[in-house]
Amino acid sequence: MTAQDVSDRVVDGAADLLREALGDRVALPGDADFDRLRMPWNVAIDQRPFAVAYPQSAEDVVDIVRAAVKCGLRVAPQSTGHGAAALADTDIANAVLVNLSAMRGVSVDPDVRTARVLGGTQWNDVIDAIAPYGLAAMHGSSGDVSVAGYILAGGLSFYGRTHGLAITTVRAVQLVTADGSLVRASAEEHPDMFWAVRGGGGAFGVVVSLEIDLLPYGDVFAGMLLWDAVHAPAVSRAWAAWTQDAPESATTSLRVMNFPPMPDLPPFLSGRSVVVIDGAILESDDVAAELLVPLRALEPEMDTFARMPSAALVAVHMDPPDPTPVATIGGMVAELPAEAVDAFVAAGSAPGVFIAELRHCGGAIARGAAGGGAISALGGEYCVVGIGVVPALEMAAPVARAVRGVVDALRPWHADSLALTFVDGGVDRAPAWGRSRGRLIDLKYRFDSDDVFASGHPVETLG
Ligand SMILES: Cc1cc2nc3c(=O)[nH]c(=O)nc-3n(C[C@H](O)[C@H](O)[C@H](O)COP(=O)(O)OP(=O)(O)OC[C@H]3O[C@@H](n4cnc5c(N)ncnc54)[C@H](O)[C@@H]3O)c2cc1C
């Protein structure tokens, strides 16, 4: 659907109609709250929707979707705005941005190891709620990413090589669909919608709650090893070789990180470039320590690997806790011979690159699980990610070019797949869905033929 098609269907007086239907649950340009509510976590993205709606309940979401559709407007669900750069590929000038940040909450059933979370819930909320029961969840490296946005796009976690993509832990999704219905989709109820939303995410509705499986880990062996970046070539080659034999119980990442001099940073990072290996090893302390011997032999200047409460795992990667202006690009890599590692390290030290990262995938991540949805597995052995900080909006394009260099450096070794969570716009998403894509497009037409939902990862509509 083109921006012109959408614009043509917006009814006269749409702003007044929205206000009449939604009252103070919607903010329009010029309203006191509009700028605060439209601001995403990724503050490099200046998103300007037609209006922002701010639901407190599933019933509010039903009202919002119905009012938007009646006005001829699209609906763009957003929980935190970590993925705002992906949504920026879509014109949302005639969309109601649904800011779900008030819809947070977790209820835990420790006996069957599941949690029910509201549509805007963040992983830190889940971690806090499940820690007293000695349970863990398949969160990623950042606790303020939302469960819905992350998990329905796949979700790469440090439990991944043992337990698969986080999306495989979704048991049910309750969402408001394009016709304004509140639907519970699971293997038994609305199975086609359940299949589609697991990979199609916000292109199929506004998720108001999810039910997810939890993991039986009260503690984990996890941490990080850090060296000065002069050691990046040797450490990176050693890690790449180590991952070839690492068991599926070990999920780790390797990063080249370039920190500007900043008083807020700890002195061991400020103004330095470093190389870091971090992750989790789901083994006893002795087995985990034995596995780490070749990496520890490289004499890191910092080594925090130890047994820790599973609630502490989310902090190991040191992701920024506050809204940040970033440009990110990801790709998948089939193998990492020495020349690929050297190309990665060189690209990681280019100007404009804040972080160049390789996450070890494979194992259960590549195998998937029975009964999965449009995404249930991720091909390729490594996910490569380039991240840059955008100091001012006019720097967005050069920083994006610099971080693209990290992914492009590994082009000869790319796998024909894509981790949707690390797509921040500007790329073809088709490889993320692979063979599921045809069915996903058919189901988009069946459930949302008017393309009501504007998602960070759009699914084509037929016709
Ligand atoms: C600092 C940082 C660390 C990260 N770490 C990891 C990681 O370790 N592993 C990993 O796999 N990914 C990671 N990511 C990527 C992250 O998972 C994606 O950006 C994800 O889309 C963020 O989801 P969100 O809901 O928080 O963001 P949003 O921008 O709010 O949402 C992104 C998209 O998700 C959909 N969506 C969100 N909420 C809803 C809802 N309630 N209903 C329907 N659709 C919804 C929408 O289509 C929306 O456009 C990280 C990103 C950042 C910035």
UniProtKB/TrEMBL annotation:
<comment type="similarity">
    <text>Belongs to the oxygen-dependent FAD-linked oxidoreductase family.</text>
</comment>
<dbReference type="InterPro" id="IPR006093">
    <property type="entry name" value="Oxy_OxRdtase_FAD_BS"/>
</dbReference>
<keyword id="KW-0560">Oxidoreductase</keyword>
<dbReference type="InterPro" id="IPR036318">
    <property type="entry name" value="FAD-bd_PCMH-like_sf"/>
</dbReference>
<dbReference type="InterPro" id="IPR016169">
    <property type="entry name" value="FAD-bd_PCMH_sub2"/>
</dbReference>
<keyword id="KW-0285">Flavoprotein</keyword>
<dbReference type="Pfam" id="PF01565">
    <property type="entry name" value="FAD_binding_4"/>
</dbReference>
<dbReference type="InterPro" id="IPR050416">
    <property type="entry name" value="FAD-linked_Oxidoreductase"/>
</dbReference>
<dbReference type="InterPro" id="IPR016167">
    <property type="entry name" value="FAD-bd_PCMH_sub1"/>
</dbReference>
<dbReference type="InterPro" id="IPR016166">
    <property type="entry name" value="FAD-bd_PCMH"/>
</dbReference>
<keyword id="KW-0274">FAD</keyword>
<protein>
    <submittedName>
        <fullName>FAD-binding oxidoreductase</fullName>
    </submittedName>
</protein>
<dbReference type="InterPro" id="IPR006094">
    <property type="entry name" value="Oxid_FAD_bind_N"/>
</dbReference>
<feature type="domain" description="FAD-binding PCMH-type">
    <location>
        <begin position="45"/>
        <end position="217"/>
    </location>
</feature>
